[in-house]
Structures are given as structure tokens and as C-alpha cells.
Design brief:
- The chain is an alpha/beta fold and 323 residues long.
- It has two domains: 197 residues, Rossmann fold (3-Layer(aba) Sandwich); 93 residues, UDP-galactose 4-epimerase, domain 1 (Alpha-Beta Complex).
- It is 39% helix and 17% strand.
- It is built from ten helices and 13 strands.
- Strand 1, helix 1 and strand 2 form a beta-alpha-beta unit.
- The structure holds uridine-5'-diphosphate (UDP).
- The site of uridine-5'-diphosphate has 15 residues, from helix 6 and strand 8.
């Protein structure tokens, strides 16, 4: 099996590369490192079955030899990142999806699109099931990500219907674990970094908005299972265990033993009020549900961030200067 993964040096992409190598695949990891990092794939580079290609997939890519799977995971995915790179985000979701679909078609490969719970926008149906069409502000600051992914889903279904391409679509809900970037701006790296440094935890709004956090290993298992079944409609992958952002902050304080206080900041524009996946479809089609609960996942992730925060400190243990 020869599997190409775009965004393979990112948080989720690097876990996928690792998993497919462990399954005996040859893995071609494509990334332009706009938000991904080489350190995520450093341990994989010694493996003869692994190739890294530094390429922006919004431009066409030629690959020698056959491909069995094309997995399109490239995109800035944290709100801070896609607000910093709005046009690359729109391009990788649209042109990048078109390019990867074309590549899969040329090679007769199976195709999997990494879509997102953001296609539901600020949802008016709760929890979110796949049949819900969403509530998205196309011209808001999050629109660059949401609409690109909605276009990507439409394009993927069009390739399936028009060209008979063997496609899959997953809608990924909030996922966490080792290899998230400490500075990616998402709630979990922010809170863990702040707790470990003794800085205040920045809760946006009053913290009553909800999210549901899935540990990365569970997500990867869902992806592997979906590739094995013949199913072309979108599938939600996430952990339905919902928590408010304020409760989440308190959990991280308790887990880390940090004395940090909580500081309230303005709620960003179009920040979804609630988010929780309905995973009935994944249960039925894949026999899948998350196995690692939030407490366990948070413990594992905290260990990773502890090492990262320590690594940020100059020798002698003094606090680094922060800009
Ligand atoms: N959030 C927060 N403090 C932070 C970062 C995020 O309160 O330092 C909130 C954010 O407003 C949102 C939730 O946490 O309601 C999740 O935000 P994140 O950026 O992780 O991703 P999202 O789920 O919004 O895509």
C-alpha cells in the first residue's frame, strides 16, 4: 500500500503518517510547513518507507509510481492560524482539494477528505448530526475555513458522482493530543501553556460556550476504519463528552496543580456557542466510538506540553523573554 498524506507534518497528519507506517504502508508526506513542523515527523524520517515532500498542495503535484490512498489533511486548522493565513486557507481547501482529487483520480486511488465540524458553523441543532446543513457566516472571519471545507466536501462528492472516485469524508470535531503546537492559539495549548508557566488562563467570553474534545488516537482509529468500509457520505468523528470552556479551564488547573488564575477576554466573532458530535453514524458504520476519556487524554497531553515548556526555557531555568 502506498499512501499520500497532505498536511502530514501537522498535528493530526503526523499521527496518521505514524499509524500507516505501522500498518506497513509506504507513506508520502506532503507539507509546506506553513503550520506543520518538521519536528513532528523527525522520528519517521529514518524509516525507508517514509518520504517527505516540501510542497504547497494548492499547486498541482506530480507523483511517480502508483498510489493506493490520498488523504487530504493540509490546512491551517486553528482559528488563530486561519485568521493569520486567510487566503492560503481558502486555497488549500479549494485548489488543494481539487489537486488532490485529480491526483487520486489519475492514480485510481481511494480518497479521504479531512473536513470539519466547522461546516456546521454556529449550530442551531445540537448535537450536530451529519444531516444538518449548518449555520455559517460566509463573510465572517471564520468563513475562510468553513466555506473552504464546505466547498471541499461539495467537490469531493462531485468527483465521486461524476468520476466514480472512491471517496470518504470525515468531519473532525475538536481533537487534542501530543504534537499540537504550543502557540497554535487553540484553547487546549493556550490553557496548558498558561497553567505550566503560571500565567492567567485566558477564558474568552464568560466561558459558557461548549466544546467536546477527542483524543487524537481515537480519531486516527476512526479514519483507519472508514478507509476499510465502502461509505461515501460524511461521517462525524469526535468525542461527544461536552464541557464548557470554563469547566475545561478548571480541569486543566486541577490536573496541572497550577496556581494560575482565570482571566476573562472578549469572545471572538462568530465563536460557536455549542459543539458536540452526534456519532450514531460512526457507531453504526464503523463500530467506532472514542476509548480514551478526557481525563486520560489530558494527562498524556500535559506530559507532552510540560516537556515543550521546559524546552522553551534557556539553560539555568530562567523564564524566557516573551514578546
Ligand atoms: N478559547 C478560550 N481561550 C483561549 C482560546 C480559546 O476561551 O485562550 C475558547 C474559544 O473562544 C472557543 C473555544 O475556546 O470558544 C475553543 O476554541 P479553539 O480556538 O480551540 O477552537 P474552536 O473550537 O473555536 O475551533
Amino acid at each position: 500500500m502506498r499512501t499520500l498524506i497532505t498536511g502530514g507534518a501537522g498535528f493530526i497528519g503526523s499521527h496518521l503518517c505514524e499509524r500507516f507506517l505501522a500498518e506497513g504502508h509506504e507513506v508520502i508526506c506532503v507539507d509546506n510547513l506553513i503550520t506543520g513542523t518538521l519536528s513532528n515527523i523527525d522520528p519517521l524520517r529514518a524509516n525507508q518507507q517514509f518520504t517527505f515532500v516540501d510542497h504547497n498542495i494548492s499547486h498541482p503535484l506530480e507523483v511517480d509510481g502508483p498510489l493506493d490512498n490520498v488523504l487530504h489533511f493540509a490546512s491551517p486548522a486553528s482559528p488563530v492560524d486561519y485568521l493569520a493565513h486567510p487566503i492560503p486557507t481558502l486555497k488549500v481547501g479549494s485548489l488543494g482539494t481539487h489537486n488532490t482529487l485529480g491526483l487520486a483520480r489519475a492514480k485510481g486511488a481511494r480518497y479521504l477528505l479531512a473536513s470539519t465540524s466547522e461546516v456546521y458553523g454556529d449550530p442551531q441543532v445540537h448535537p450536530q448530526r451529519e444531516g444538518y446543513w449548518g449555520h455559517v457566516n460566509p463573510i465572517g472571519i471564520r468563513g475562510v475555513y468553513d466555506e473552504a471545507k464546505r466547498f471541499a466536501e461539495a467537490m469531493t462528492m462531485a468527483y465521486h458522482r461524476s468520476h466514480g472516485l472512491d471517496t470518504r469524508i470525515i468531519r473532525i470535531f475538536n481533537t487534542f493530543g501530543p504534537r499540537m503546537r504550543l502557540d497554535d492559539g487553540r484553547v487546549l495549548p493556550n490553557f496548558m501553556g498558561q497553567a505550566l508557566r503560571g500565567d492567567p488562563l485566558t477564558v474568552y467570553g464568560d466561558g459558557s460556550q461548549t466544546r467536546s474534545f477527542c483524543y487524537v488516537d481515537d480519531l486516527v482509529e476512526g479514519i483507519v476504519r472508514l478507509l476499510r468500509v465502502d461509505f461515501h457520505e460524511p461521517v462525524n468523528l469526535g468525542n461527544p463528552d461536552e464541557v464548557t470552556v470554563l469547566e475545561f479551564a478548571k480541569e486543566i488547573l486541577a490536573l496541572s496543580g497550577s496556581q494560575s488564575r482565570i482571566e476573562y477576554r472578549p469572545l471572538p466573532q462568530d465563536d460557536p456557542r455549542v459543539r458536540k458530535p452526534d456519532i450514531a453514524r460512526a457507531r453504526q458504520v464503523l463500530g467506532w466510538e472514542p476509548r480514551i476519556n478526557r481525563a486520560e487524554g489530558l494527562r498524556r497531553t500535559l506530559e507532552y506540553f510540560k516537556a515543550k515548556v521546559q524546552g522553551d526555557k534557556p539553560a539555568g531555568g530562567a523564564e524566557p523573554a516573551r514578546s
